[in-house]
Amino acid sequence: MKATAAIPRCPRCHAGLGPHEAYCTDCGAPVAGEAGRVDVSVIPVAQGLGGTFGCQSCGAQVACEPGQRGYRCVWCDSSYVVESPAGKSAVPSPDYVLPFSVDERRAAEAFQRWLGTGLFRPGDLRRRARLGQVRGVYLPFWLFGCRTETTWSASIGEHYWATETYTTTDSKGRRVTRTRRVQRTEWFPLSGRYHRRYADVPVSAAAGLPQDQATAIGPFPLESKRPYRAGYLAGWMAEDPSTGRDAAWPTARDEVLGREGRGLAGHMPGDTHRELRHTTSYHEVTADLALLPVWIHPYRFGDKVHVFLVNGATGKAWGTAPVSWPRVAAAVLLGAAALASLIGLVAWLTR
Predict the structure, then answer these.
(1) Could you tell me which residues come within 8 angstroms of residue 303 by beta carbon, excluding any fewer than 6 positions away?
(2) Between the CA of residue 208 and those of 159, 163, 284, 307, 309, what are the distances in Å?
(3) Contact 312, 294 (CB under 8 A)
(4) Tens digit of pLDDT for each residue in 225-248?
(5) What is the pLDDT of residues 25-62, one digit of tens each?
(6) Are 204 and 242 spatial neighbours (Cβ–Cβ below 8 Å)?
(7) In angstroms, rounded to a whole number, what is the distance separating the alpha carbons of residues 313 and 295?
(8) What average pLDDT score do residues 159-165 get?
(9) How many C-beta atoms surround the C-beta of residue 224 within 10 A?
């Protein structure tokens, strides 16, 4: 059975628009009447079973891939979002979506700029890199929240100034006694408790996006996320999570623990501290599923495939690149020559 979800969308960046908005809140483009409205058909298909469904506009069969949520008909460009019938799938529905605000042109320009940077990349990288299909994809992330309780102990240092007497030799070679002010530190033990709440700690749930790569193109402006509606996916590919909440929690917990340590360091009294130790417990853990925008640029250099990623909300980029070992060798030799010259100069000056 066909259900239609239509939302107003920006004609420039395709971000979803609220009712009666005259300008896009993401890119500022003016919105005239219904010009930005895009229809997306919601097709109830059991997730993970693959198969096909018939295009509602032209009748063509559209292949349904396991783990993919958004589709476009190659014949008439109609947009579809595949949803599981209630109770028919263990794959959770998204809670939030962060709309694209970086278009394909900006993502492609970022890739071209990036190709021309890097000291140890091959000189012909820009010419020989063969760009694959550029895809804008909504990738799944778990957004964790929790309340922490931490017990800590540390040595707290308080600085103070003291006057000390010392003996030295003056310009005439005579031994003289002088005084000077020096900073010293008094240390004392302290312990306490620390409470904090965390929200929207993102963990990649996409099989093709390791957490370190997700971190490299982050952060995402999660304060701009919106409640999920199928219409946001019109014209975009979208993936279902391949990592469950329980499997993603340890990654989020490690991130929270790192933030807790940094927060504690700034919370310490006194002028300085050392030997900070803490034990943290986690309470009221929540996890929302969000679809976040990423541009994926696979490219081939020689016989190896590399990947270039662009944050679809901020434009921040990251990628893997081949290494020119002749350039690395030349840099090592140049550094060795410079070091040898410096040693020779020092030896000549100290003769």
Answers:
(1) none
(2) 51, 63, 30, 11, 12
(3) yes
(4) 999 988 888 778 888 898 999 999
(5) 555 555 554 444 445 666 665 544 456 677 777 665 66
(6) no
(7) 10
(8) 93
(9) 13
Question: Helix, strand or coil for residue 111?
Answer: helix
**pLDDT tens digits, one per residue of 170-182:** 888 889 998 999 9
**Mean confidence (pLDDT) of the chain:** 78
Domain ranges of the chain: 1-91, 95-107+130-320
Strand (E) or helix (H) holding 124:
none
* 335 three-state secondary structure: helix
Can you tell me which residue has the tokens 């263990």? Answer: 90
SS (H, E, C) 184-244: EEEEEEEEEEEEEEEEEEEEECCCCCCHHHHHHCCCCCHHHCEECCHHHHCCCEEECCCCC
Residues 6+ apart with CB under 8 A from 270: 156, 157, 158
Q: What are 304's two structure tokens?
A: 């190896």
